[in-house]
Amino acid sequence: MALKTWEEVGKYQKDVSRIITNSYNQNRISHAYIFEGPNGTKKTSTALLFAKTLLCSNPNGYNPCNECHNCKRVDNLTHPNLFYVKPKGKVIKKEQVTSLITEFSKASLEKGPRIYIIEEADKFNLYSANTLLKTMEEPGEGIYQVLITENYNSLLKTIISRAENLHFTPIDRNIIKEQLVENGIDLNIANSVSEYTVDMGSAIKIAKDFQMINVIKLVTDINKAFLEKTVSSIILFKENSDDILNSEEITDFFLTLMIFYQKDVLNFQLRRLENICFEDELDTIKSLSEKMSQKYLENNLAKMLGLKSRMKYNINSKLAFDEMLMCLERGYKYATFCSSDTI
Ligand SMILES: [Zn+2]
Questions:
Q1: Percent of all residues in the chain with a pLDDT value above 90, rounded to a whole number
Q2: Which of 151, 192, 256, 338 has the largest count of CB atoms under 10 Å?
Q3: Residue 343 pLDDT > 50, yes or no?
């Protein structure tokens, strides 16, 4: 999703938006920025808005018009004065830099500023970095660079020393939730997904993934089954276990949501309603919270978190999940508790 204004950037990255718009207003835009922060924090779309701001032929203050030929070509990455580089493979190769420099020196360039946006700038090797930096230093005026990275500490010192660093923070879960709901995603799904990831791109992907949505439904069904003597959570899981266990991503999603649900039960008991993820399941959550003491709920949660960290080590997840469900079911249905350390 392209960002159109700096106010929009401000919704996700308040400081970044403030710093850039202030610099723009004071005519003190830096010639080199490092945009650093985790995946899914809008670094690339902010860099493209920055390019549009500088290239737009009909700007409104610091905001580009998003309509003119220049704006459209930035959106399509076809503007001749915009150089967008994404490394192929593990390092930014010499050839990639050389071809960039050739492009750069072509006479076909249009008048006006030139902007380099370099993704994964930590992948520069010393040679590539020096070659590029040298070329960029020479023409000076009108040359801007935005170096993007998730690994600030791996950037070369030569790069860090000549750029202004802007830190991108993980996006607020509530904003992700709002956006998912705006995109027509069901509230239960929006809540679980925004708890699961703060990466907007993967949040949308998960929220629209049929299999992931089934996992959310299964987790709510399993928790309902803890309250009914005639339905077994273990059988419910067994019926769906092939789908869940055939991919690591889905296995992790399932366990994470089971953990969120247990947290909800605990939060309900502690009257921390604002922290509840499965908002549509309050009746079930309330009934579950009356079945177990805080101590047992905390104990269950600790064991489930322990299981989540053990999942990395190729344990038998089918067996582990069966045991987890058995312990939870016994506790909720019959108030008998597992003393074993197996879940
Ligand atoms: Zn424009």
A1: 47
A2: 192
A3: no
How far, in Å, from the CA of 78 to the mean position of ligand 1? 14
- Which three-class secondary structure state does DSSP give residue 299? helix
| Distance from Cα 200 to the centre of ligand 1, integer Å | 26
Q: Maximum CA pair distance of the chain?
A: 80
More confident residue, 151 or 200: 151
Instruction: Say how many Å lie between the CA of residue 51 and the centre of ligand 1.
Output: 11
pLDDT surpassing 90 at residue 72: yes
Distance in Å, CA 23 to ligand 1 centroid:
20
pLDDT bin (cut points 50, 70, 90) of residue 342 is very low
Distance 74 CA to ligand 1 centre (A): 9
| pTM of the model as a whole | 0.70
The Å distance, Cα 69 to ligand 1 centre, comes to 7
Sorted by where each starts, the structural domains of the chain and their CATH numbers stand as 6-167 (3.40.50.300), 209-334 (1.20.272)
Contact 55, 79 (CB under 8 A): yes
Confirm if 23 and 32 have CB atoms less than 8 A apart. Answer: no
Per-residue pLDDT tens digits for 239-288? 998 888 888 889 999 999 999 999 999 999 999 988 888 988 999 999 99
Ligand 1 centroid – CA 87 distance (Å) = 28
Question: Residue 68 Cα, ligand 1 centroid: separation in angstroms?
Answer: 4
